[in-house]
Design goal:
The protein is mainly β and 141 residues long. The chain contains no helices and 10 strands.
């Protein structure tokens, strides 16, 4: 029995029932349990919200964590929100932990959605996608 762990994170338990023509035992339950650790994970997650008053929107950050035994390099970062955000990458534990800070630079109030595309030298995960949502409101003093 196998499972596709592409979308599974953490501990899991799967069950399959196998049927037979055995009169004594018509079915048997098989269990597959384990823990899936992704090659690369985000803490707290791969989604950031930037909300606040225009010119005063707080920045947000996340950690990019390499869970693999071999070190990984981040080779570049692109985004589809150049008019709304800037980012800064800091290597915390070389090859294993990075801190990515995203700051809102919107000139106008409004909502936006987009992505950061983080390129790595890890052949299993050459590109990581981080979702960015922004809500910038006018300062009505």
């Amino acid at each position: 029995m196998t499972i596709d762990t592409t979308t599974v994170r953490g501990e899991f338990k799967k069950k399959a029932i196998v049927w037979s023509n055995d009169v004594e035992r018509r079915s048997v339950a098989l269990y597959l349990m384990g823990k899936v650790t992704p090659y690369i994970s985000f803490d707290p997650g791969g989604y950031l919200s930037l909300r606040g008053v225009k010119g005063k929107v707080t920045s947000e950050h996340l950690q990019i964590i390499n869970n693999h035994e071999n070190p990984m390099k981040i080779t570049g970062i692109d985004n589809d929100l150049p008019e709304h955000i800037i980012w800064n990458l800091e290597e915390i534990k070389p090859g294993y932990v990075y801190r990515l800070e995203i700051e809102d630079i919107s000139i106008q109030a409004g909502n936006y959605k987009g992505h950061l595309f983080v390129r790595t030298d890890n052949p299993k995960k050459p590109e990581l996608v981080i979702i960015i949502n922004g809500e910038v409101i006018e300062d009505n003093k």
